[in-house]
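Readers of this paper often ask what the protein records in our data store actually look like. This encoding replaces a full spatial description with a residue-level series of whole-number codes. For reference, a complete record is included directly beneath this paragraph.
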Amino acid sequence: MSIEEAEAEQERLRPLVDLDDPGPERVEFVAGLDVGYGGDDEVTGAVVVLRSGTLEVVDQVAVRQRAGFPYVPGLFAFRELPPLLAAMDRLSVRPDLLVCDGYGLAHPRRFGLACHLGVLTGLPTIGVAKTAFVGRHDDPPAARGSWSPILLDGEVVGRALRTREGVKPVFVSQGHRVSLDNACSHVLRLSPDFRLPEPIRAADRLSRS
């Protein structure tokens, strides 16, 4: 697939994203998804399913593949989706919510990895990133739970959310079938001790193992 074809695929799928469904307020199982990069253009898709109430790991799968698409900002999904979807296919526990290391609506074409995953799986999906990618935002107040909107072309595409007092925020955006308010509530609930949500931390560790 060429870069032009990948961009056209994002444009084709974007109308399928559901940003109006508020999504579940509570879930039993939540999956963290992350991709690790190795030598020789190798990518490892890691999916870890946790019990939401206890953050106990109940299932995990990692799939290692050769990347089939070049490293192009805004098109990372085309490198990362194949191993992530392969890993999800091997899960024995179906998650109720996906939390992925990446962007959803906060993307140049409003269709980042979280949107793409949500549309292809049909599951409520949230993007949580360590750094800002598009738009502008003010620094939120220092208190845990504080946030400021991420604005792109005058539109709110996500939030800079403070998950730990005095620690730099994470960048939350809707992926599919979950509201921004609900997405931020889930992220805070899943980040009791660290800046990043525990499902993403677990998937990051697995992707490096």
Q: What stands out?
A: DSSP finds five helices and eight strands in the chain.
